[in-house]
Write a structure and sequence with these properties.
By secondary structure, the chain is α/β, with parallel strands linked by helices. The chain has helices at 30-34, 43-54, 111-124, 158-161, 185-196, 220-231, 248-253, 265-270, 282-292, and strands at 2-3, 6-7, 25-28, 58-62, 82-85, 90-93, 102-106, 129-134, 138-140, 154-155, 173-179, 201-203, 210-214, 238-242, 256-259, 273-274. Helix content is 28%, strand content 21%. The chain is globular, with a radius of gyration of 18 Å.
């Protein structure tokens, strides 16, 4: 179900065949989707992205990555220069190049909601540890493992980091990362969604038990819908690609969507089609067919 661009269901609904609608926008996840496992963008994919832009089809990167991790694709944003980061928490203009990105839209996680989510999940899954992602800062608890290639700005309990009088309060919270050392990833996700309820949106993109907690109704899909509405682009005119649970709503919302050959089972169920794996340039394969009229 769709309501003013807000995605309210992860169940694909029957509708007018999207294949009859020429695409105006391609929305693609990065890790496990557009990028190969070595985090590179293959020459074939670079050429396909450029061909899409040349044909007048906008390309949006829609990722769970923070803006500061977008250097790998900053040369490929072409005309509009925009990317959706943090699972929909921010729209970023990457035209300035590495380190000079500009936040165009921020959909923050309110601090009280963040505090509620932290406590609710601590109670439901003892042993959970947290990190806090902000527009320009990254902070974590002392017990949070070294999962990311960066040094945190602050080491402190999440409750202290999220307190209204914290020194981090000058910047919006984009998302919370929650890690559990023992629970299975999908079980941890289910536990968190039940415990947190509508206080926040919970998803995951990692193969480990690492969850991403965003503001209520903030997702890749809902922010992509806002960006498309600003451009007068309908969901039928969007082709989307993804591989993990944080892509499900976007794949459901788009008129046409493709699960990668390496995708999570929930993604395979949500997408309207499938392609080969990321290491085999699955996104490029579909784009080439789209531009040649083969799809």
């Amino acid at each position: 179900m769709r309501d003013n661009g807000r995605v309210t269901s992860a169940t694909r609904q029957p509708e007018t065949p999207a294949a009859a609608t020429p695409p105006r926008l391609i929305a693609t996840d990065l890790d496990g989707t557009l990028l190969r496992d070595d985090k590179s963008v293959s020459p074939r994919t670079v050429a396909a992205l450029a061909a899409a832009e040349e044909a007048g089809v906008e390309v949006f990167f829609v990722t769970g990555r923070p803006a500061r991790w977008m250097d790998v694709v900053s040369d490929h944003v072409h005309g509009h220069g925009l990317a959706i980061c943090g699972n929909g928490a921010a729209v970023v203009d990457l035209h300035g190049g590495p380190g000079d990105h500009r936040f165009v839209k921020v959909r923050e996680l309110p601090r009280q909601n963040a505090l509620d989510a932290v406590q609710l999940l601590r109670d439901a899954a003892p042993g959970t540890v947290y990190a806090v992602e902000q527009t320009y800062g990254f902070h974590q608890e002392p017990a949070y493992p070294k999962l990311h290639m960066e040094i945190p700005d602050t080491l402190a309990p999440a409750e202290e980091l999220l307190a209204p009088d914290s020194r981090t309060a000058v910047e919006p919270v984009l998302k919370i990362l929650a890690y559990h050392p023992e629970l299975a990833p999908d079980a941890f996700l289910t536990t968190a969604r039940i415990a947190i309820g509508d206080r926040a949106n919970v998803t995951r993109s990692s193969p480990s038990a690492l969850l991403e907690i965003s503001g209520p109704a903030v997702s890749k899909a809902s922010t992509l819908a806002l960006c498309c509405a600003e451009r007068g682009i309908s969901h039928e005119e969007v082709v989307a690609f993804g591989d993990m649970p944080n892509d499900v709503e976007m794949l459901t919302w788009a008129g046409r969507s493709y699960a990668m050959g390496n995708a999570h089972p929930d993604v395979l169920a949500a997408a309207s089609g499938s392609t080969v794996a990321n290491n085999d340039d699955g996104v490029a394969v579909v784009i080439e067919r789209l531009l040649s009229g083969g799809l």
